[in-house]
Amino acid sequence: MKPRLIDIIFLLNRECMFERNEICEKSNLTYQEFIIIDLLNINEIVSCNIIANRILLSVSRASRLIESLVKKGHLIREDDPDNRKYIKVYFSKKGKNIKKIIEEFKNKCEKKIVSKIESKDLGIIEKSVKILSEIIEY
Length: 138
Known about the structure:
Elements: H1 5-27, H2 31-39, H3 48-55, H4 59-71, E1 75-80, E2 83-91, H5 93-114, H6 119-136
Antiparallel strand pairs: 1-2
Helix pairs in contact: 1-5, 3-4
């Protein structure tokens, strides 16, 4: 039986899942907290709304996750003196360290996958994955 596309996507996810879970466990992060850290750029300052949009969650749920990351020391949250409705969120030093660990993990995982692909096929695969990503982004 030919594997379905979703089965292939799940297999790729499983390929690196165990190490991701290990990072979460060592850093006391939930999977959604891991995703937030992963989606923020290292020196970026964003609002809760931007984070909610990136992780496709409600602003209320994103706020709770951000608050948890603030309590764990990974993010800093502060009011914007120029706009009372805007809350600035950015990495603490501890958060930047976790972000670097996540980037190293992603690079290692990508190398593991790419090392099994012939170079002539890599461009086709990258284009196909980009198309899938655009479809999934709603």
